[in-house]
Amino acid sequence: MHWSNLTDFLAMGGYGTYVWWSFGICYLLFVCELISLIRNRKATYKKLGKIRGYETPH
Amino acid sequence: MPLRNINWFKYAAPQPFYGLAGKLIPWFAVGALILGVAGLYIGLLIAPTDAQQGDAYRIIFIHVPAAWMSMFIYLLVAFWAAIGLIFNARLASMLALSLAPTGALMTFIALFTGALWGKPTWGTWWVWDARLTSELILLFLYFGFLSLHASIDDPRRADRSAAVLALVGVINVPIIYFSVKWWNTLHQGATISMTKAPAMASQMLLGMLLMVGSFWLYSLATSLYRCRTLVLEREEHAAWVVEEIQ
Fold this sequence. Notes:
The structure holds two protein chains of two kinds. By secondary structure, chain A is mainly alpha-helical.
C-alpha cells in the first residue's frame, strides 16, 4: 500500500482535484452509457412489440 | 470443438451473430469489471508516486487506455464500414455504427482527462498542438459519422455514405499516433513502444495494462450490446426477431 492514511490518498499529493475529476467523469460517463444502452433496448422491445400488438416481456 | 472447425462466416448473418453476442457480452462485462477493479487498485493504491509529475500522473491510468481505444475503435469502425461497403454486408455496417458512439465516448474521455492532466503539468488546459488538435479532429470525425448516418432515412444508403466518411477519416489515426514524433509538441512521447523498454515502473505498467484490458472489454461489451438492439430494429420483419420479441 502506497498511502499511510485516507487524507493523503484523497489529497493525491495536492493533485486530488485533477485526479478525482478525471476518474469521476470517466466512470460517470460509463454508467450513463450503460443506462442509455439498457433503456434503448427496452424501448426497442416495446416499440417492436407494439407494432405487432404483442405485450413486452419486461 | 477445435477452432478451425467452426464456420466463422456463419456469424456474418444477423441471427447467429445475435445469439453469439448475447452469450459473449456477460463474459466481456465481468472481465471488464475484474480487470478494472484490479487496475484501479494497483493504479491508485499500490503504484508509487512519479518523481517528476507527482500524483497527477495517475490520470495516465484512464487517459492512455481511453486514447488507445479512441484510435483503435476508429480503425474498427472504418474496417467494418469498408466491409459493409465492399461486400454489401449489412451486419458489418451495423457493427461500424454500433462501435462509433463508444469510440466517441473514449475520445471525449481522452481529451477531458488530458486537459485535467495538462493543467497541473503544463500549466494550461489546452494548446493547439498536433497531438491535441488531431485527437479533437477524431472526435469530430465520430460526430460526423454518426450525424451523417442519422440524417439519411434509408439505413443502407446511410451505411454507405457514412462508410465513405469513415474511410476518408482513417488518415487522421496515424497522424494522431505519430504526431508527437513528427511535430514539436507539449505532449510527452509514447510511454510504451515496440522498440524500447517501457519508460515506467513495473507496478505503473501493470496497472495501466490492466486498465487497457478493462477498457477493451468494456468497449466490446457495450458495442455488441448496442449492435444487438440495432439488429432487432433493422431485422424486425424476420421470423426469428418476431419470436424474440414475443
